[in-house]
Amino acid sequence: MVTEGREQERISVLGIPSLGDRFAVFETMVKEHNISLVTPPVTKHTLSLGARYSPEFACLPFKGILGTFIECLEQGADTLFMVTSFNACRMGYYAKVQEQILRDLGYRFKFLRFHSSEKGLIGVLRAIKRFSNNASWPTVVSLFRLAVAKLRALDELEREVQKIRPVELEKGTADRLYREAIGAIDRATSFASLRQAMRGYFERLEQIPKDAEYAPLKVGIVGELYVVMEPFFNMNLEIELGKMGVEARRTRSTFFSEYTKWGTFLNALNDEKKELQKFAHPYLKRDVGGHGLESVGEKVRRAGDYDGIIHLAPFTCMPEVIAQNIMPFTKEGIPVLTIACDEQLGRAGMLTRVEAFVDLLERRRIGNILR
Predict the structure, then answer these.
(1) Which residue, among 242, 180, 176, 185, has the nearest Cα to 208 in the 3D structure?
(2) Considering the entire predicted model, what is its pTM?
(3) The CATH number of 216-371 is which of 3.40.1130, 3.30.2010, 3.20.20, 3.40.50?
């Protein structure tokens, strides 16, 4: 953990970039330690701020995160947090460049960077201790266990909602319950209250009227983590696919509870990454940074499970550009739609492309049945 500023100074307001709903569930927990959590949702204003102060060649995640940091600071954050890594992706440079831009703009703050090399159990516990203003170790372990349980609850609910969206008779019902459930998970202060909330919302999801005879198309969503996970940048793609009667699927690596499993905390390579490397290897021999290898591997692995793949790639993202150029030439005949994401991407244009892609998949399915 790298801390800029005075090491012993307490955190009062912690600003974290938005990544869907993932960090919102920890707001209640940090409040117990007199820390306010600021995670402003990404909006057009966020992106305009980020684009205004970013280098022109910077990718969409850089601009989105920078804009979020500015909004966090304007809302009173005294500390910012960023996950960084050292690989072929430019993400390894983000934190330092963004920090310098913000300081040049006149903001004063502490900056915490969590390196990918610190993902082991001890590194995570030390990070929680720092974020909780050096709480006692028993408190840190307790916070960690509850945080892991909340992540797993959120991921289990989201997976269930993904299955219900295309078959529910009244579109939007599952999403309304899911938004309620996020608040209930956040408010849970014990394992008992969390289990109670989970049980109640799973029962309500099960009771949603569904078309039991409809077999939805299954479309995998792959690409760079930020644009896959942040609904603003992908135009709520999963929800829109559900309205079209399509079941959206994502890789395990986009569900953060997968990173809390024991093997991962011992710094072992995640089983998912190993498997995707195996499938990608005939076409991509090494990790090219970001999620490029995962995008190729997922296409190869899921050729028999998915009807199609939607590949989300930030404009100028080199790992995803490499993946984009490899995927059309793999022997697996699964259709792939690549969407380049930047601040110029419009909702109407994107949905038109997605609707045409879904129509192609439906016709392809009918053709396969008639053969």
Answers:
(1) 176
(2) 0.90
(3) 3.40.50
